[in-house]
Write a structure and sequence with these properties.
This protein is mainly α. It has a domain at 28-92. The protein contains three helices and no strands. The protein has helices spanning 6-12, 19-46, 63-92. α1 (6-12) packs parallel to α3 (63-92) and α2 packs antiparallel against α3 (63-92). The radius of gyration is 18 Å and the shape is elongated. The two termini are 23 Å apart.
C-alpha cells in the first residue's frame, strides 16, 4: 500500500492535539518502508535469480534482455525508495 497526498493531508491537519503524533507515525511508517525496500534492492542486486519465481529471467531470450529485466526491477525499487523519501520530506516540512 502506498501513501499518496500525505503532505497535503498534514498541511490541512496542522491543528489539534494529535498532529505531531500523526506526523511522527507517518514518518516512522514511511521510513520503515524505505528500509524494507533498501533491503529488497540489496538482496535483488546480490542475486536476481533468487527473486525470479516466474521464470522470466531464466527464459530471457538472451543476456541483453535478461540484463534489461534486472535493470528495470532495480530502477523500479529505486523509484519507490525515492517516492517514500519524498513523502517523508513533505511530512517534515
Amino acid at each position: 500500500m502506498q501513501l499518496f497526498g500525505v503532505a497535503s493531508f498534514f498541511k490541512r491537519q496542522d491543528r489539534g492535539p494529535n498532529s505531531d503524533k500523526s506526523r511522527e507515525k507517518a514518518i516512522k511508517s514511511l521510513e520503515q518502508r524505505i528500509d524494507e525496500h533498501k533491503q529488497k534492492l540489496q538482496a535483488y542486486k546480490s542475486n536476481p535469480d533468487a527473486f525470479a519465481n516466474k521464470g522470466i529471467l531464466k527464459n530471457a531470450p538472451n543476456a541483453e534482455v535478461r540484463q534489461s529485466i534486472i535493470d528495470g526491477r532495480i530502477k523500479h525499487l529505486e523509484h519507490e525508495i525515492q517516492t517514500f523519501q519524498n513523502q517523508v520530506d513533505a511530512v517534515r516540512h
